[in-house]
Amino acid sequence: MADRNDPYRQFRFEILAGDIKAGFSECTFADTTTDPVEYREGPDATYFRKLSGLTKYGNITLKWGITGNMDLYNWRKAVIATGAIKKRKLVVITLLDEEGKPAAKWNVYEAWPSKYDPPDFSAKGNEVAIETLELVHEHFERVQ
Predict the structure, then answer these.
(1) For the domain with range 13-31+58-142, which CATH number is right: 3.40.50.300, 2.30.110.20, 1.10.760.10, 2.50.20.10?
(2) Cα(117)–Cα(132) distance, integer angstroms
(3) Which pLDDT tens digit goes with each residue over 45-87?
């Protein structure tokens, strides 16, 4: 009988942004798309050839419960103060298997925080206060 190849669970992951290692409650990848370019070839006007155009990579959203660690906020603050050109980082997102070993890994190239959303507060609730950071990047690839 062949070994089972069950899918990995999505709740165990870690993220390393340059020298910043942090725990997150949610990481949302946006999709990657390649735009089709229609091209009519020759005198036949009945159909178009579909060629590949620009490839676009959507932003990545990270959410975590607020703590005393301000590394990610300070990264965003540095981008606001001096621009993103010298603040870009390689971000590595690793999915862990049930034993805590790396199962899949994505490298996100030239990433920088474009949006920071502090938590909302309510005296009526008892939920964890969640911070959100949105990363823009040049591209990503699955490396494992």
Answers:
(1) 2.30.110.20
(2) 5
(3) 777 889 999 999 999 999 999 989 999 999 999 999 999 999 9
Taking the C-alpha atoms of residue 137 and residue 50, their distance in angstroms, rounded to an integer, is 27
∠ Cα 40 56 144 (to 5°) = 120
Question: CA 23, CA 14: separation in Å to the nearest integer?
Answer: 6
Number of residues written out for the chain: 144
Task: Tell me the whole-structure pTM to 2 decimals.
Answer: 0.84
Q: Determine the residue type at 55.
A: T
Q: DSSP 3-state helix, strand, coil percentages of the chain (rounded to 5)?
A: 10, 50, 45
How much is the pLDDT for 1? 57
Are the C-beta atoms of 94 and 14 separated by less than 8 Å?
A: yes
